[in-house]
Amino acid sequence: MSLIRPTSGSAGGLDRVTAGLTTGSPTSGSLASTALSRRSFGKLLVAAAGTAALTACAPRSGTPSPDAPLRVMAINHVWSQAISAYFPEFEDMIGRRVSMQMLTADQLSNSYNVKLNASATDIDVMMVRALQEQLLFARNGWMADLTDRVEDSAFEWDDFQEAPRDRSVTRDKVLSVPVVTERPALYYRKDLVEGFGGAPQTLDDLLAMSLELADRDNGQFGFVGRGQRAGAVSQWSSFLFSHGGDFTLADGSSGIGTPEAVAAYEYYGRLLHEAGPPGATNMSLEQAMPIFAQGKAAFYVDADAIYSNFLDPSISTVQETVGFAPFPAGPAGSKPHNIPSWSIGVNAFSRMQDDAWAFVQWASSPEMVARLQAEGIPGARQSAWSDPETLAAFPPELAETMRINAENGIGHDRPEVIQVGRARDIVGRPLVAGILGEDVAPVAADADAEFRDFLDRDNRQQEF
């Protein structure tokens, strides 16, 4: 199962354009050895029934009819479409029908704002971006506390990779469970790097090779990547971490004015300014990805989840020459992000929180994660990443790249604040200056002062 070409509005480049509910029987290519049995899932349900009730917010009064469906609100994404194929299995286990509404990212955010502000009970399971929305949802009391639930031994919470697991916790409460993870990959042209001995191992190598391979006058570029002010921040984060910086310091103040951050700004700016395509400051995923897919760039750093675009002959000319490599090491080593791009949680106002939790258990169980990862959807459980059979859907070089980046990964790719969009806009300003060839230091200093003020205001909002 390949991951779909990216569309606008996607956090990680995986959303589909069309919306709608996908139902049906499990796909014939699923791993028989990982099928969830009634007995194994029954044990989980018994354990869940004995766990303390969710405490974030008491469910609304009234008992739902046995005929009422369990309602899942989700992003229109390959994970959502894949899991929906197995709904009959879950419905048979739980004795209740499942109804899933799939929306674009913007539609999903708008629906949550409208419905949850009104304490709506017509959502039971919520698909969310832990790094984009969870702080806001937690402050508003919209997500049920799953802490006691996940800590039951039957759930195997420790099996989740540390970085995505840590990002599921807000104010010492587990509010979501990661179901899709994402890291950056270094995509490269194997035919162009043969003379260099292979893919670059360090950021210094990446810059030197990109500059040497660039022939900009003839439409050939050494490097392509996101350059749009706010949109580039998530991919730039790995360059920041690998230079030894972060968005914030240990005391919670701005980190984007540090020497490490300025060096990362200057590095990324030079990479695109001297080796990248014209108009890079207007490029998001949708503009940068086709340049590499059409063979016009030697290197490209972006989400590993979009790899199938380069293997699709309908849009790619590099399917025979594309290579995959871990994120190159900077002064602080190789420190890519490893994030939960999408997670699932329980609506604090749901009247079916036990059934909603049963769905979360089932959808994020070791068996289901292994099953979906074997179909090409990267999950968050370490057991799946340690099983060669679950990695068979990925090209071997990519599977190893993903595994290494996950081991070295940092659990965020953007500032961890309530107003994420505003924070990304501030942090992205020096990126644009560097790409335009301007002096980065004074722009970074100004952005640092603005970000300090922003963090002070945003942190006050986080006191809940």
Automatic annotation (TrEMBL):
- Pfam families from the xrefs? SBP_bac_1 (PF01547)
Q: Where in this protein does the record put region Disordered?
A: 1-30
Instruction: Spell out the Polar residues composition-biased ranges.
Output: 20-30
Q: Which InterPro entries match?
A: Bact_solute-bd_prot1, SBP, TAT_signal
- Domain of life, per UniProt, equals Bacteria
PANTHER family hit by this protein: ARABINOSE-BINDING PROTEIN-RELATED (PTHR43649), DIACETYLCHITOBIOSE BINDING PROTEIN DASA (PTHR43649:SF12)
Protein name, UniProt field: Carbohydrate-binding protein
